[in-house]
Amino acid sequence: MLPQTDKIPELIDPQALYTSNGQEAWRVLGIMAEFQLAADRMRGIRPAVSMFGSARIKAGHPYHDKARTIARKLSDAGFSVISGGGPGLMEATNQGAQAGRSPAIGLNIMLPHEKSGNPYQDISLTFRYFFARKMMFVRFASAYVVLPGGFGTLDELSECLTLVQTGKSRRIPIILVGGSFWTGLLDWFRERLVGEGMIGASDLDLMRIIDDPDAIVDAIFHFYENRGFQPTAEERDKMLNL
Predict the structure, then answer these.
(1) CATH number for the domain harbouring residue 147
(2) What predicted TM-score, i.e. pTM, was given to this entire model?
């Protein structure tokens, strides 16, 4: 029920109804500018794969080696490889991709605890706004490869699953790397989300665990072998309405 008219002053600062310093409008323009610049810089990079993973995993860790190997194989197979541009598994991803024959792309975000992007980026973009950055990960990806990570990695995985599940984005391969890391989460999805009717059982088929780098490349090619990597006209329309 809407609040009583005489109670509005108790709920809303009256000054907010009559004053504006234009900050929100400038923020919207900033998001638009970032979006346009990034779209122009990344135009024509398809096919591309977006890879995600922890910023905290150091060189020498098995996850770091796996990320670098997968990215190198994807790059040599003809995929531009997109990462978040930061340290850890993002750096391993860019390093592996840059050593291959396709571009290594970093979508950096300005954060107080991360100094700058890693040095292995053929195309480097820096974002202030998460919204514009996340759009680039989804808009240009023909597949998602998700390595172990924290909240940011889980956020990107959830974002892509939601967009595909709801039909706001085209169906693409979503590959989880690290069976021992992800199995517990998928079991929880099955027990709680499916078991309590939060999602359908078939929604779990939107993603799969693959640990072997060559099998990851093969799975992506297999998904597209009968249709090609370019989005259909219907899929392009979807991507314009994310």
Answers:
(1) 3.40.50.450
(2) 0.86
